[in-house]
Amino acid sequence: MIPRSNADRLLTQVLVGEVCPPLGDRFGYRVDAEGRPFLLPGMGGVTLGVRVGDPATGHAADHLEPGLSVWHPDPAANHALQYLTCVGNEVTVLVEGRPRGRVLGQHAYVLVDLDDAAAVAPGDRVAIRARGQGLRLLDHPEVGVRNLDPDLLPRLPVETAPDGRLRVRVAARVPSSAVGAGAGMVSEFANTDLMGRVDLRIGDLVVLLDQDHRFGRGHRAGYVAIGAISTGDCRLFGHGPGPSTLLTGPAAAFDLVDDPTANLGAAW
């Protein structure tokens, strides 16, 4: 059964941002965990060839952000983009042809997956129909919902199980020891980097064990956080492909089912 929610009480705000160009500094190189220097593409701009359902790792990249990387040059407006956009929100690029896509997640920028990415360039403006923060599951009060468009919820492998728990199909279970950058930050901002994960796809639904993301991100035994992988390869120590948080709460509130096909691609 699809979980009941308060979706009818949520507001929609139209936010405007622009595709951020890739940024660098005059030194160019970074250094990986083994002390090896590297110079690779990754954050910012329009990244072609990697979409929902594609491998998150194995690319010659660092801090890979698939699709469009969207920001606002005004810091306060940029924070609104980070905090208020949700996975699944509709995005319209404000250029001729008006390509449309969906928010894939948050990282340094808001990440957008769309079919016509090659028609978009840095500096192009986009409009995002932001809706989802404040979403609650009425029959699962212990479960916190974060960064989830309510229209996406019925299309995800999420349901109320016969025993009353929230059943969620996940492509991978991640131990807390793999959690890297992102710990300590609020779960509505950026994502959680996972160290040592090489078998994930963009859009995979994963569960982070012993993680509580209700009021920030941190280790708490007996809790879990479930998210969708939104970023790919990272070469810096403590970084890696990572999920944007969607659901979190006591592990006892969930019925987790292993399913390697659990991916946003089936819901797009």
UniProtKB/TrEMBL annotation:
Gene3D superfamilies reported for this sequence: 2.40.10.170, tm1086 (SG structure) domain (2.102.30.10), tm1086 domain (4.10.1180.10)
Pfam families the UniProt entry points to: DUF4438, DUF4438_C
Record-annotated DUF4438 domain positions: 29-153, 155-265
InterPro entries xref list: DUF4438_C, DUF4438_N, TM_1086_sf, TM_1086_SG_dom
Protein name (Swiss-Prot/TrEMBL): Uncharacterized protein DUF4438
Organism: Actinokineospora auranticolor
